[in-house]
Predict the structure.
Amino acid sequence: MKKLICIALSAALALCLAACGGTEKQEAGAALSGAVSTDGSTSMEKVIGGLGEMFMETNSGITFTYNPTGSGSGIKAVQEGRCDIGLASRSLKAEEAASGLTETVLAYDGIAVIVNPENPVSDLDVATIAKIYTSEITNWSEVGGNDAEIVLIGREAGSGTRDGFESITGTEDACQYRQELTSTGDVITAVSQNPGAIGYASVASVKDTVKALTVAGVAPSNETILDGSYVIQRPFVLVTKAEGSLSAAAQAFFDYALSADAHEIITAAGVVPAN
Protein backbone atom coordinates (compact mmCIF):
# COMPACT_ATOMS: atom_id res chain seq x y z
CA MET A 1 0.00 0.00 0.00
CA LYS A 2 2.78 2.39 0.97
CA LYS A 3 4.51 1.54 -2.30
CA LEU A 4 1.36 2.41 -4.29
CA ILE A 5 1.01 5.75 -2.46
CA CYS A 6 4.63 6.62 -3.21
CA ILE A 7 4.15 5.84 -6.90
CA ALA A 8 0.99 7.97 -7.02
CA LEU A 9 2.72 10.91 -5.33
CA SER A 10 5.69 10.64 -7.67
CA ALA A 11 3.39 10.68 -10.68
CA ALA A 12 1.50 13.68 -9.36
CA LEU A 13 4.73 15.52 -8.69
CA ALA A 14 5.98 14.77 -12.20
CA LEU A 15 2.76 16.09 -13.73
CA CYS A 16 2.98 19.24 -11.60
CA LEU A 17 6.58 19.90 -12.63
CA ALA A 18 5.71 19.32 -16.28
CA ALA A 19 2.81 21.75 -16.04
CA CYS A 20 4.93 24.37 -14.30
CA GLY A 21 7.66 23.96 -16.89
CA GLY A 22 5.11 24.40 -19.66
CA THR A 23 3.78 27.55 -18.02
CA GLU A 24 7.27 29.06 -17.71
CA LYS A 25 8.01 28.28 -21.34
CA GLN A 26 4.76 29.89 -22.46
CA GLU A 27 5.44 33.00 -20.38
CA ALA A 28 8.99 33.28 -21.70
CA GLY A 29 7.71 33.11 -25.25
CA ALA A 30 4.72 35.39 -24.68
CA ALA A 31 4.36 38.27 -27.14
CA LEU A 32 5.58 41.64 -25.91
CA SER A 33 2.77 44.12 -25.31
CA GLY A 34 2.22 47.58 -23.90
CA ALA A 35 3.08 51.16 -24.82
CA VAL A 36 6.36 52.99 -25.36
CA SER A 37 6.30 56.78 -25.25
CA THR A 38 9.12 59.04 -26.44
CA ASP A 39 9.28 62.83 -26.35
CA GLY A 40 11.79 65.44 -27.47
CA SER A 41 14.14 66.41 -30.28
CA THR A 42 12.53 67.26 -33.61
CA SER A 43 15.87 66.53 -35.30
CA MET A 44 15.56 62.88 -34.28
CA GLU A 45 12.18 62.43 -35.96
CA LYS A 46 13.45 60.39 -38.91
CA VAL A 47 15.62 58.00 -36.92
CA ILE A 48 13.17 57.53 -34.04
CA GLY A 49 10.25 57.20 -36.44
CA GLY A 50 12.05 54.48 -38.37
CA LEU A 51 13.03 52.60 -35.22
CA GLY A 52 9.54 52.88 -33.78
CA GLU A 53 7.90 51.58 -36.93
CA MET A 54 10.19 48.57 -37.15
CA PHE A 55 9.76 47.83 -33.44
CA MET A 56 5.98 47.78 -33.83
CA GLU A 57 6.24 45.62 -36.95
CA THR A 58 8.13 42.96 -35.03
CA ASN A 59 6.02 43.38 -31.86
CA SER A 60 2.37 43.61 -32.87
CA GLY A 61 1.25 44.12 -29.27
CA ILE A 62 3.26 47.33 -28.88
CA THR A 63 2.04 50.90 -29.33
CA PHE A 64 4.91 53.32 -29.96
CA THR A 65 4.51 57.11 -29.79
CA TYR A 66 6.85 60.00 -30.52
CA ASN A 67 6.06 63.57 -29.47
CA PRO A 68 8.31 66.10 -31.30
CA THR A 69 8.54 68.87 -28.71
CA GLY A 70 12.25 69.74 -28.75
CA SER A 71 15.20 68.49 -26.72
CA GLY A 72 14.56 70.60 -23.62
CA SER A 73 10.91 69.62 -23.46
CA GLY A 74 11.76 65.95 -23.92
CA ILE A 75 14.23 66.05 -21.06
CA LYS A 76 11.64 67.72 -18.85
CA ALA A 77 9.05 65.11 -19.83
CA VAL A 78 11.32 62.35 -18.51
CA GLN A 79 11.91 64.26 -15.28
CA GLU A 80 8.17 64.67 -14.75
CA GLY A 81 7.36 61.07 -15.70
CA ARG A 82 5.33 62.02 -18.77
CA CYS A 83 7.26 59.72 -21.12
CA ASP A 84 9.41 56.62 -20.98
CA ILE A 85 12.37 57.89 -22.98
CA GLY A 86 13.40 61.46 -23.70
CA LEU A 87 15.13 62.44 -26.94
CA ALA A 88 17.82 65.10 -27.10
CA SER A 89 20.06 66.25 -29.93
CA ARG A 90 22.64 67.40 -27.40
CA SER A 91 24.34 66.08 -24.30
CA LEU A 92 22.70 66.59 -20.92
CA LYS A 93 23.70 69.71 -19.04
CA ALA A 94 25.35 69.23 -15.65
CA GLU A 95 22.23 70.30 -13.78
CA GLU A 96 20.06 67.92 -15.80
CA ALA A 97 22.32 64.98 -15.02
CA ALA A 98 22.41 66.04 -11.37
CA SER A 99 18.60 65.98 -11.28
CA GLY A 100 18.65 62.20 -11.68
CA LEU A 101 18.81 61.70 -15.44
CA THR A 102 21.23 59.70 -17.53
CA GLU A 103 22.03 59.82 -21.23
CA THR A 104 22.85 57.10 -23.72
CA VAL A 105 24.16 58.14 -27.14
CA LEU A 106 22.17 56.49 -29.91
CA ALA A 107 23.88 58.07 -32.93
CA TYR A 108 25.87 61.02 -34.19
CA ASP A 109 24.57 63.51 -36.72
CA GLY A 110 27.14 65.09 -39.05
CA ILE A 111 26.36 68.32 -40.89
CA ALA A 112 28.32 69.01 -44.08
CA VAL A 113 29.16 72.53 -45.21
CA ILE A 114 28.60 72.61 -48.96
CA VAL A 115 29.58 74.90 -51.84
CA ASN A 116 29.20 74.88 -55.61
CA PRO A 117 31.65 72.51 -57.38
CA GLU A 118 33.07 75.49 -59.30
CA ASN A 119 34.17 77.14 -56.05
CA PRO A 120 37.96 76.72 -55.57
CA VAL A 121 37.65 76.92 -51.77
CA SER A 122 37.88 73.44 -50.27
CA ASP A 123 38.58 73.95 -46.56
CA LEU A 124 37.36 76.29 -43.82
CA ASP A 125 37.58 76.15 -40.05
CA VAL A 126 34.61 76.64 -37.73
CA ALA A 127 35.58 80.19 -36.78
CA THR A 128 35.72 81.22 -40.44
CA ILE A 129 32.41 79.51 -41.20
CA ALA A 130 30.85 81.47 -38.34
CA LYS A 131 32.24 84.74 -39.70
CA ILE A 132 30.83 83.93 -43.13
CA TYR A 133 27.36 83.15 -41.82
CA THR A 134 27.24 86.28 -39.66
CA SER A 135 28.42 88.37 -42.66
CA GLU A 136 31.71 89.40 -41.07
CA ILE A 137 33.21 87.85 -44.19
CA THR A 138 31.18 88.61 -47.32
CA ASN A 139 33.44 87.87 -50.30
CA TRP A 140 35.03 84.57 -51.30
CA SER A 141 38.32 86.35 -52.02
CA GLU A 142 38.70 86.87 -48.25
CA VAL A 143 39.09 83.10 -47.77
CA GLY A 144 41.15 82.25 -50.83
CA GLY A 145 38.35 82.04 -53.38
CA ASN A 146 37.17 84.09 -56.34
CA ASP A 147 36.23 87.75 -56.11
CA ALA A 148 32.53 87.05 -55.66
CA GLU A 149 29.84 87.75 -53.12
CA ILE A 150 29.11 84.91 -50.68
CA VAL A 151 25.46 83.88 -50.86
CA LEU A 152 24.26 82.36 -47.59
CA ILE A 153 21.82 79.47 -47.90
CA GLY A 154 20.26 77.81 -44.86
CA ARG A 155 17.23 76.08 -43.46
CA GLU A 156 14.04 77.62 -42.12
CA ALA A 157 13.54 78.54 -38.45
CA GLY A 158 12.62 75.44 -36.48
CA SER A 159 14.72 73.11 -38.64
CA GLY A 160 16.74 70.59 -36.63
CA THR A 161 19.63 70.86 -39.09
CA ARG A 162 19.68 74.63 -38.71
CA ASP A 163 19.55 74.34 -34.93
CA GLY A 164 22.47 71.92 -34.97
CA PHE A 165 24.57 73.99 -37.36
CA GLU A 166 24.01 77.26 -35.51
CA SER A 167 24.62 75.68 -32.09
CA ILE A 168 27.93 74.14 -33.17
CA THR A 169 29.19 77.26 -34.95
CA GLY A 170 27.93 79.62 -32.24
CA THR A 171 25.80 81.62 -34.67
CA GLU A 172 22.35 81.28 -33.09
CA ASP A 173 20.10 84.19 -34.11
CA ALA A 174 23.01 85.84 -35.93
CA CYS A 175 23.04 84.21 -39.38
CA GLN A 176 22.38 86.56 -42.29
CA TYR A 177 20.67 84.18 -44.69
CA ARG A 178 19.91 85.14 -48.28
CA GLN A 179 17.58 82.15 -48.54
CA GLU A 180 15.91 80.03 -45.84
CA LEU A 181 14.68 76.81 -47.43
CA THR A 182 12.37 74.13 -46.13
CA SER A 183 14.28 70.97 -47.01
CA THR A 184 17.78 69.58 -47.31
CA GLY A 185 17.11 68.84 -50.97
CA ASP A 186 16.22 72.47 -51.64
CA VAL A 187 19.46 73.65 -49.99
CA ILE A 188 21.53 71.26 -52.11
CA THR A 189 19.74 72.37 -55.30
CA ALA A 190 20.19 76.07 -54.50
CA VAL A 191 23.92 75.66 -53.84
CA SER A 192 24.40 73.53 -56.96
CA GLN A 193 22.88 76.30 -59.10
CA ASN A 194 24.81 79.26 -57.64
CA PRO A 195 28.64 79.44 -57.88
CA GLY A 196 28.73 81.91 -54.98
CA ALA A 197 26.52 79.96 -52.59
CA ILE A 198 27.34 78.16 -49.36
CA GLY A 199 24.96 75.94 -47.42
CA TYR A 200 24.75 73.02 -45.00
CA ALA A 201 23.10 69.61 -45.12
CA SER A 202 23.19 66.26 -43.38
CA VAL A 203 26.26 64.34 -44.52
CA ALA A 204 24.21 61.38 -45.75
CA SER A 205 22.22 63.65 -48.09
CA VAL A 206 25.14 65.28 -49.92
CA LYS A 207 25.23 64.59 -53.67
CA ASP A 208 27.90 65.10 -56.30
CA THR A 209 26.07 68.21 -57.53
CA VAL A 210 27.72 70.08 -54.63
CA LYS A 211 31.11 69.96 -52.90
CA ALA A 212 31.43 69.21 -49.20
CA LEU A 213 34.20 71.27 -47.60
CA THR A 214 36.71 69.82 -45.21
CA VAL A 215 36.53 71.55 -41.82
CA ALA A 216 39.97 72.35 -40.40
CA GLY A 217 41.33 69.73 -42.80
CA VAL A 218 38.90 66.94 -41.87
CA ALA A 219 36.40 65.57 -44.37
CA PRO A 220 32.93 64.59 -43.16
CA SER A 221 32.46 60.81 -43.17
CA ASN A 222 31.05 58.09 -40.95
CA GLU A 223 34.54 57.42 -39.63
CA THR A 224 35.45 61.04 -38.79
CA ILE A 225 32.03 61.66 -37.28
CA LEU A 226 32.34 58.58 -35.09
CA ASP A 227 35.88 59.39 -33.90
CA GLY A 228 34.98 63.04 -33.30
CA SER A 229 37.58 64.55 -35.62
CA TYR A 230 34.87 66.11 -37.79
CA VAL A 231 33.60 68.74 -35.40
CA ILE A 232 30.33 69.89 -36.99
CA GLN A 233 28.33 67.10 -35.43
CA ARG A 234 26.10 66.45 -32.45
CA PRO A 235 24.92 63.43 -30.49
CA PHE A 236 21.42 62.00 -30.65
CA VAL A 237 20.72 60.97 -27.07
CA LEU A 238 18.22 58.71 -25.30
CA VAL A 239 17.41 60.18 -21.88
CA THR A 240 16.14 58.06 -18.99
CA LYS A 241 15.93 58.29 -15.23
CA ALA A 242 19.06 57.12 -13.46
CA GLU A 243 17.04 55.49 -10.70
CA GLY A 244 14.22 53.04 -11.32
CA SER A 245 13.60 50.88 -14.32
CA LEU A 246 11.78 51.11 -17.62
CA SER A 247 8.68 49.07 -18.34
CA ALA A 248 9.29 45.78 -20.14
CA ALA A 249 8.12 47.30 -23.43
CA ALA A 250 10.23 50.46 -23.06
CA GLN A 251 13.30 48.47 -22.06
CA ALA A 252 12.84 46.19 -25.07
CA PHE A 253 12.71 49.22 -27.39
CA PHE A 254 15.74 50.79 -25.67
CA ASP A 255 17.75 47.59 -26.11
CA TYR A 256 16.64 47.22 -29.73
CA ALA A 257 17.58 50.82 -30.61
CA LEU A 258 21.12 50.25 -29.32
CA SER A 259 21.56 46.84 -30.94
CA ALA A 260 23.26 45.92 -34.21
CA ASP A 261 19.79 45.08 -35.57
CA ALA A 262 18.98 48.81 -35.61
CA HIS A 263 22.10 49.94 -37.48
CA GLU A 264 20.56 49.75 -40.95
CA ILE A 265 17.60 51.94 -39.95
CA ILE A 266 19.83 54.43 -38.13
CA THR A 267 22.16 54.69 -41.14
CA ALA A 268 19.20 55.05 -43.53
CA ALA A 269 18.07 58.03 -41.43
CA GLY A 270 21.35 59.76 -42.30
CA VAL A 271 23.13 59.45 -38.99
CA VAL A 272 25.96 57.27 -37.66
CA PRO A 273 25.24 54.55 -35.07
CA ALA A 274 27.16 55.17 -31.86
CA ASN A 275 28.00 51.49 -31.32
Remarks:
- Residues 110-226 form a domain with the D-Maltodextrin-Binding Protein; domain 2 fold (CATH 3.40.190.10).
- The chain is about 35% helix and 25% strand.
